[in-house]
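Inverse folding, one chain.
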């Protein structure tokens, strides 16, 4: 080999080494930058989160991937994703019981900007040492979504027990109005007073979880329960039966068809003006608005069940949407995730998306100028300003998903006539004790 050739080879080798070093440096820079993988709980906001993630990536260059679990499958999906090498860096729990299952994966967020921006730091979930493990990002409200035009049209027929929707402030009044609307459904051009109480997995949570929360709330109030009890008495299950009967007896749908009815069915029935009432929450606004029911004809009533003093009751308000950063992710990925969350709650794009596109009420001090136009949120504000007491979200203390499933199956059996209400009582009371014992050893 000539000296000239050797020199060329050496030079080429140096060049390749430099290129290799550059590639390593780039790789190191990419690794140090970190990335975000968010496993989203809410299917109705899947596209909104995808759009927000893309905007952040375009602005910062940081990779943000968003995957959304199908309705009713979040816990199963989370377990599967966490077992992978490229696990979510950001995930959700539904409250203290959900956090208990994932506390070992929860990074301490005490020093995060997310925590510092909470209006009330007490809403965060902590461990025994005070470390902040989960932070709610949305405060939501549910009740009986109401088409005020249909109610007013019914009142105009002349035989209504009320002269104004404002008079509906207890179960007996609600029942008389609902039954009157059902009786006049042909005159009003609707299919039923209530939308279908579907027990498809996309819809059954409205009853086995959200509706079941109401008797649970009143029992906890009466007994001074503040944590998760080992057993419940079912004190208000007669009232639970009364409101459930009202739903299924005055509906768009025959009871025999409830097992196959979905949340999309209920959304459509209400959005197309075929029913006056629909139990759901603030999150349903995006599925309803822009169709046949005008925003000015939308409001939300509390779920009255016939308990003394319920005229002072507001809507059910709380959160089951807590962000958790995966402490098994790399330090770079954890920091990238915290930075992304800070951007979401402080940037114009993030705040506009959460407040106006997704319609969320958030617990952060950065949203004073981003109050959503959602009429259900406005209804909740009106109840609170009137001094009504919000119903707390106690379903976070329900002992397990299996308990909810057992209750839901019993409720469906009762509705379809293949079971008795006693089966519902057994699932609620006995099922609670057995599931609590199983989960808590």
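Residues assigned per position:
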């Amino acid at each position: 080999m000539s000296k000239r050739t050797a020199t060329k080879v050496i030079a080429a080798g140096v060049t390749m080494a430099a290129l290799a070093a550059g590639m390593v440096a780039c790789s190191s820079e990419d690794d140090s930058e970190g990335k975000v993988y968010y496993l989203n709980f809410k299917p109705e906001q899947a596209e909104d989160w995808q759009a927000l993630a893309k905007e952040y990536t375009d602005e910062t260059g940081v990779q943000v991937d968003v995957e959304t679990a199908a309705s009713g499958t979040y816990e199963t999906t989370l377990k599967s994703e966490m077992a992978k090498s490229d696990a979510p860096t950001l995930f959700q729990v539904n409250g203290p019981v959900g956090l208990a299952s994932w506390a070992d994966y929860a990074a301490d967020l005490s020093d995060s900007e997310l925590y510092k921006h909470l209006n009330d730091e007490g809403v965060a979930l902590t461990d025994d040492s005070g470390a902040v493990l989960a932070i709610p990002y949305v405060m939501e409200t549910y009740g009986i979504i109401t088409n005020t035009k249909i109610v007013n049209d019914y009142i105009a027929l002349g035989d209504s027990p009320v002269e104004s929707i404002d008079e509906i402030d207890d179960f007996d009044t609600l029942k008389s109005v609902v039954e009157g609307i059902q009786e006049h459904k042909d005159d009003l051009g609707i299919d039923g007073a209530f939308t279908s109480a579907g027990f498809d997995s996309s819809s059954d949570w409205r009853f086995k979880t959200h509706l079941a929360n109401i008797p649970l709330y009143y029992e906890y109030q009466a007994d001074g329960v503040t944590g998760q009890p080992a057993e419940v008495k079912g004190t208000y299950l007669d009232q639970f039966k009364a409101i459930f009967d009202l739903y299924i007896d005055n509906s768009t749908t025959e009871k025999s068809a409830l097992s196959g009815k979905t949340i999309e069915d209920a959304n459509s029935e209400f959005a197309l003006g075929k029913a006056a009432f629909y139990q759901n929450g603030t999150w349903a606004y995006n599925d309803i608005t822009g169709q046949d029911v005008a925003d000015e004809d939308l409001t939300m009533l509390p779920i009255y069940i016939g308990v003394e003093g319920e005229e002072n009751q507001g809507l059910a308000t709380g959160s089951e949407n807590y962000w958790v950063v995966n402490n098994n992710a790399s330090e770079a990925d954890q920091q990238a995730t915290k930075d992304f969350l800070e951007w979401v709650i402080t940037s114009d794009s993030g705040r506009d998306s959460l407040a106006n596109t997704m319609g969320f009420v958030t617990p952060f001090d950065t949203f004073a100028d981003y109050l959503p136009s959602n009429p259900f949120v406005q209804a909740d504000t009106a109840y609170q300003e009137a001094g009504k007491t919000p119903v707390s979200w106690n379903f976070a203390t329900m002992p397990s998903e299996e308990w909810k499933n057992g209750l839901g199956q019993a409720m469906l059996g009762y509705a379809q006539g293949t079971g008795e209400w006693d089966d519902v009582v057994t699932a609620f009371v006995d099922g609670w004790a057995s599931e609590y014992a199983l989960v808590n050893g």
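DSSP finds 17 helices and twelve strands in the chain. The first strand starts at residue 36 and ends at 40.
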